[in-house]
Amino acid sequence: MDRGQRGEPPASGARLPAPSSESGRVLSLALGAVLVALLVLLLAGLPSGRGELRTAAPPPPDAGITPLDCQFLLARARAEGWRHLELPPGRHWDGRPLAVVAWSPADALVVIQHAPRVECGSLIDARLRDSRFNAGVGTVLRPLAASGKPIEVWISPGTWEHWAVSVVAGDPTALQRQDGIRGALRIAILTAAALLILSAGLGSIISNSSVFHGHALASGLLAIWVAELSGVAGYPSRWLLPPEWSAPLGIALLLPVVGFAARALAEECGTRHRWPNLSSGLRGAMFASLPAALLVALAPLAWLPTLSRAVEAAAAVWLLLPLGIGLYCLRGAPRTAVGVVGAVLPLCLTLASSNWDPPLISAFRAEVTAATATWMALVALLMAARRLGIERDDLSRLSRLAFTDALTGLPNRRGAMAYLEAREGNGPLRAQKWVLASLDIDHFKQINDEFGHARGDQALRLFAETLRRARRHSDLVARVGGEEFMIAMPDADLAQMQRALKTARSDLQSSETVRSLGFPLRFSAGVVEQRPGESLDDLFEQADRALYTAKRQGRSRDVLREGAGRGSDRDRDRDRDRDREDQART
């Protein structure tokens, strides 16, 4: 619970309001639309009320595949010239069980044939393959001992035909373990993307910042892309999108994900202030990536293999821009620059490596691509949260400067008025009445002239600390002028205020104060109690008049409203002139 909720006056005054953004509202609506769409799709994939799984829509006629037509698919593979691999036994098979698994892109069809047995499947829907393998298409065979007939594997071209396909044969237990690790890794990456959505969504709700709105929207697109790329959207059956949308969206969604991340990471290096034209270009490219992704998703299926290579190349080149900006900022902001380079470089290398296909990446290309993209989004979100925290700290410091007296740490006149006006509202902390005391240190000009301004500042700090100790927990103490202070007590009476002033006066004239400063501190006070219907402005005016009456009567005393009377403005001006003459004589 904060200070205001406890009824305690704020230490640094009122808080500045957060600026609103029109773009933030637009992104918030877009985020809501994406989340609603995801929810509808997830609900559509849940089991029905009768306990039966909903069946997926039948495949298009030209697909030529159902869960039972592996023979037809084998004939089609031979006729169309699919990629063909043979696993020779060497001299002969030894008769032990043998597992064969192909880890391939999500939309590829795989046929494994060892006469007379034929197995087939695809990661688009796990019902179309052996349930013992989650991350790839595989089966367990038992070749006859001394048989020299090879095991044949046929792989359809697919959208990512430029990606290498890893086909392995070996001990069933070892391969099932490796397949399980791959599947767990893919699910972990998708879980991380889902947590990104949750984190960015909570951040956007708490901070009401357009930055987090954008990250939440980009994280939602990333999660869909990761699910389709890794094949998790097809396990145990299609639960996200129809099968015919898997490959187009797996290609198209890379554009807005990279477009948003490139702009967000570049902004961390201050492109908006250093290179405003470049910042505007990145912003325009980010918004242009959305219609570009839509065009790619609606392109003919025959174009997808070429488009996949083009999109990956464009994304790799696109990421070079924030990479170069990060390297340029290494001298001025090394921590930010390292974060930007560390976020962009892994995905940039992964996308560019499809041209030379290194073995370390090619065997795990789907996992590495999804992991590096999720890593980039995670770092971008963390850096945005860090920047937002720094900006809020700056705003807090500005608020303290605007509403707090730097010397004593007390609220200044602006901060005191903001607090009192807030307590005058209709909220649960509304005060029924106030008792106000206006205080002035006696002969403070003489203290500065005789002991120096440093000792005068010390006296002001000591005076402020003494008033803090004398007040109640809910009372407000403020420095409203040079040597002028104020105490405001909510729902109190005159006796409570007089006790507090008596305690403060006793402490300031004690031997400890004299030993610390070299002289005792005395003050005059004007005390007023709020009357029904009396405004704060009138209360301040009456306290000010009572204070001048106390100073006119000889200082070092408290004067109540009754003692001050209702003098005119001319009387108050005369009192002020007389006080200035007294200070000049002393």
From TrEMBL:
Protein name according to UniProt? diguanylate cyclase
What reaction(s) does this enzyme catalyze? Answer: 2 GTP = 3',3'-c-di-GMP + 2 diphosphate
Q: Which CDD domains match?
A: GGDEF
* Source organism: Pseudomarimonas salicorniae
Q: What EC number(s) are associated with this protein in UniProt?
A: 2.7.7.65
Give UniProt keywords alphabetically. Membrane, Transmembrane, Transmembrane helix
Record's InterPro entries?
Diguanylate_Cyclase, GGDEF_dom, Nucleotide_cyclase, Rev_trsase/Diguanyl_cyclase
Q: Which domain of life is it from?
A: Bacteria
Do you know which SMART domains this protein is assigned to? GGDEF (SM00267)
Which segments constitute the GGDEF domain?
432-563
Q: Where is the composition biased (Basic and acidic residues)?
A: 555-586
- Segments passing through the bilayer: 26-46, 187-206, 245-265, 285-304, 310-330, 337-356, 368-385
- List the residue ranges of the region (Disordered): 1-20, 551-586
